[in-house]
Amino acid sequence: MNKTIKYTKVACSEHSQQTLGPDSGVRIETDQVLLEPLLLERDAPNLWEVYKNHPQLFDYMPHGPCHSYEQFHAIHERFCNDRSFFNWVCYVSSPTPADDKKQWVLCGSICLLDIDLRSRKCEVGAIWFHPSVHGTFVMLEMTYALLRFAYERLQSGRVQWKTHSKNIASQKAAVKLGFELEGLHRKQMIHADGTWRNTLFYAMTDDDWFGREETTDGRPGLDVEAEFLALEAQQGRISTGRQRKLEELVESRKMEGKPLPGAISRGESLV
């Protein structure tokens, strides 16, 4: 059975980008993480408060670290004007009984970029989280939720992940999430500090995600989630695809990994 995930379309006035066509402005929610579509003037000041004491979080970003709110805002404004980019603000909650109201705490940001709806492909990237949630389940479940959205709602055939050749943490994360290394692109871009960046490219297909043989039908409008569950029922077993493996990893990290900081259970802001 699929891990419960909820998609909610928010009003156009509640998000700043329209780059995903009819799926622009979709809020994505699991039991403990919430991805809220970015509304620039509402969210940039709050994101800055989470980021400002930890500029090293942007060390491997193409634009480099930000040292002022004006610079931080300008980068997010550029994101909003990019027609191949969509940005979500990330919140996390401690486990709560079903009838209790969750206390969502802002912890970072995640994006889809290089979006090509016609070819049904995109990239997960521009990810950063407050250092206090590093090593917890947060990155895994946030990315899991966004991958569900990409494969179920956008019906992506390919999702990409790329990272600076020196960013070992990102490379390890890509492998944990189920992406496969496709190669090294030498001198792929010029970094913010003027140096050449060699970039590692990883990818995952919808067939990898659902754990099925390679498909050739690229027509839009197929009910991929229903097809996936029907295949599992027909086979009488849980799929061995990347989705199921990542669900197991998320739950394992919740049980055995680093706990969430106490501030989150108290509903306090991360600084």
Automatic annotation (TrEMBL):
One of its GO terms (molecular function) is protein-N-terminal-alanine acetyltransferase activity. InterPro entries: Acyl_CoA_acyltransferase, GNAT_dom, Ribosomal_N-acetyltransferase. PROSITE patterns: GNAT. Residues 37-207 form the N-acetyltransferase domain. It holds the Pfam family Acetyltransf_3. This is N-acetyltransferase domain-containing protein.
